[in-house]
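USER: I would love a firmer grasp of how sequence relates to backbone shape in proteins. This is the protein in question:
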Amino acid sequence: MRTAIIGYGKMGREIETILKERGHEVVAIVDAGTPFELNGADVALEFTTPDTAFENVKRCIDAGAAVVSGTTGWSQRLEEAADYCRTHDGAMFYASNYSLGVNIMFRINKLLAQMMERVGGFTPSIEEVHHTQKKDAPSGTAITLAEGIVESGIAKPEIESIREGMLPGIHTVTWDAPDEVLTLRHEIKNRRVLALGAVVAAEFLYGRKGVYSMENLLR
């Protein structure tokens, strides 16, 4: 698989390492200040900034490259990007978090919210902790968790965003009641798990058309 990396920060470098470990060719690296040239890549992996993600996805589709996007903080334009992909016969994969454990948490979170809506008496809240270099707050993962709760008919929970040290990511959903508390928590130990998930998503997307998510990959 011929790949391009868009955004050559810590995640981009980790993705490059895993791509090479798994036998894929990196034919282009696009970063701030470099030309947007994909050199015939089959799949581009895009981890940049909320301000540039939408245009990056469009340019990949226009160039005929499938695109895996892991940039968060631009969800308000995500459906627009998905429509662009469909109308231009492209391929796009988006996830707010590429950790397998987090995506299992998303499913458990929805099921738990449905149960809580039935029994009543519990109030949800979300806390997310990330490194100080993370630009968006709340995180895309926290927003996805909140949306999963809202789908059950419960009011949108408050999200507390904490930025400290070099923590890759901790997400906690707390259900508080007068006499008890239930907590759902996931912690990422290192950035590699996210890069690996993105590469697996690229392998899944290779040769496909359409719009996909981790739910498609995990089925």
